[in-house]
Amino acid sequence: MARIPAVPPQEAGLLRRLAYRFARKRYGAIPEPFAVTAHHGGLFTAGAVHELLVEKVSRAVPVSARELAVYRAAVRLGCSWCVDFGTMLQRMDGLDIERLQQIDDYATSPRFSRTERLAIAYADAMTETPVAVTDEQVAELEAEFGRRGVVELTYHIALENMRARNNAALGIPAQGFTSGEACRVPPPGS
């Protein structure tokens, strides 16, 4: 249970109720971090708009590489909610979620492409304390994704770092998106 309770729909204002409805339709449930942030209307709105805009403009890095890097950051930072939700997002994108069980072996597993390995390794370097990104690593990423892609990938990993730390501080646990308890969105092709 979160340290700060979620704002229930009946106590949310009109704008938040509309946002809740959108989230429920899209994900099958209201994401708990979203509902906890609803205690602060300005941050709730800013966060929702930010997330939608980031999603809309992110096209420079292949979805599988980007989502795996974000997932890896969530795993390394220990955010059970982010791992749960990230798994569901990958399933919704039609990606192979079975290979997530091998994420710790990404460097040698044949289930990950070279491009995905580069992105995951970058997430590893970005989540080290202190950050362990090297000039050589960025040069290799630039050769693979271009400058725009490096900036995009960096932004997504950093954004996941913020989400994971926010959720950890507020005590927001996994919500059941992976198990299907929260997510009633059908997988692709069903």
Automatic annotation (TrEMBL):
SUPFAM superfamilies, alphabetized: AhpD-like (SSF69118)
Residue ranges that the Swiss-Prot or TrEMBL entry lists as coiled coil: none
Keywords: Oxidoreductase, Peroxidase
Transmembrane regions listed in the UniProt entry: none
InterPro entries according to UniProt: AhpD-like (IPR029032)
GO molecular function, one term: peroxidase activity
Protein name: Alkylhydroperoxidase AhpD family core domain-containing protein
Organism: Haloechinothrix alba
